[in-house]
Amino acid sequence: MHFSLDVLRARKGDCLILHFGTADDPHLMLIDGGPAKVYKPHLAPRIAQIHRSRELEPNDPLPIDVVMVSHIDDDHIRGILELTADQLGNSPDLRLKVASLWHNSFDDLLTTAPEELLSGFGPASFEAGTARRPDFDSIEPDEESDEEEVHQTVDVLAGISQGRQLRDDREVLQRRSPARRQWKLNHKFDGELILATEDTDAVMLDGGLKMTVAGPMQPELLALQEAHDKWLREQKQGKKSPEAMLAAFVDKSVPNLSSIVVLAEMGGKCMLLTGDARGDKVLEGLELARLLAPGKTRHVNLLKVPHHGSSNNLEQVFFERLPADHYVFSGDGEHGNPERETLEMLLKARGVDAEYTIHLTYPIDEIDIERQADWEKEQAKEKARKKKNPATKKPVRENWSPEKHSLGALFQSNPKFGKKVVIVDPGKPHLINLLDPIKL
Predict the structure, then answer these.
(1) Which of 163, 197, 283, 397 would staple 72 via disulfide (CB 3.0–4.6 Å)?
(2) Pairing mode, if any, of strands 2-7 and 15-21?
(3) Which of 200, 207, 223 lies closest to 288, judged by CA?
């Protein structure tokens, strides 16, 4: 019996493949596709490699049970859009038979038309990678948010059009499939949104995989809808610049609440897949779905650390209540992730004597180079804002210190902790096998 997570390098994003079933009846679930420059060099070749390992006929498609987009952030959805583009173009190099797409469009979560969400900015204002986006660097975070939350909210808004494109691609692919039996939207959820409620039931997939949804939570989304409606009313008055309107929309809950969180179980083992959800919301969702008793702990065999190890999303209690055998940190240092503070939380929560493994998708020194560059860029912004407005309460961060701020120094000063780290090698599959090993 197989139950393995295949971790791919995905720059600042996520890209995972879940293998389950048996050698005679193998199954796959693709979870997120990373940002630009992930699909072609990493994801597509890996899928092709799996296709070859199945000894299928060259023209036979590779069956995939579920393609899941945890949320519409560009660093999760872009690679999936590149995959659907290949499928729409009937790419001879990547033949797939996808049973279902699990995806919550953000405007569906908020029951808001996409033109309303983007009203005032123009449809291209938030397109990822364009030069027409508002001057986000001019936005000064309030006392309750910071630079990373601004960027995360922008990325989610940028993904609105991408989410609509994915929905459109799926509809075309389903129409093309025999009897419309492929690319079914949110199959097993009656075509509805994927949400955690008090009545959440587990979903059973062919191959024996049990999936229970722990986020996003329906009660939280209702509150988010109220906040968004207020923002939309203010936006329609047309009295604010795009930057000011965006600043009003920045809220810790906006991007975090949109992530699908699932507990995958098979053969007595489990994986907690968290997208970019906030740690406290993950705990709340697990309690809501009756997967975690209030105030208690639950061991998981594998934990995909939320939001690439951002300390904004986590507190030490998260690691204390969810001890794991494997911790997956997907991030290359952009936006500072994975952050040293998060790894310090893990160290304090678990110590060095417990047996667990930390999986990083890039070498530590490469991550630290990107983290330092991000640190110094944000420091320059903070200095400029302080000069412009000396009364601001937002402090200017200290100068980067390798000893105080780098991951390398943390692991060097705690050698037992450092020995727990393994790095994803781009030249070969990085499989975390919870049951019988997969040889691919």
Answers:
(1) 163
(2) antiparallel
(3) 200
368-423 pLDDT tens trace: 999 999 999 999 988 988 898 888 888 899 999 999 999 999 999 999 999 999 99
Q: Residue 424: left if φ>0, alpha if ψ -120 to 50, beta else—which one?
A: beta
Q: Are the C-beta atoms of 248 and 227 separated by less than 8 Å?
A: no
Entry pTM: 0.91
Residue with tokens 């945890």: 70
Q: For 223-276, give the DSSP string.
A: HHHHHHHHHHHHHHTT-S-HHHHHHHH--THHHHTT--EEEEEETTEEEEE-TT
pLDDT digits (tens, 9 = 90+) for 197-243: 888 789 999 999 999 999 988 777 776 666 666 666 666 666 555 55
Q: Cα(187)–Cα(209) distance, rounded to whole angstroms?
A: 14
C-alpha closest to that of 368 among 413, 404, 408: 408
Gap between the Cα atoms of 200 and 212, Å rounded: 7
* Cα–Cα nearest to 190, from 102, 68, 259, 110: 102
Q: Using the 8-state DSSP alphabet, how is residue 217 labeled?
A: B
Q: Residue 176 carries which side chain, given as an amino acid letter?
A: R
Contact 60, 51 (CB under 8 A): no
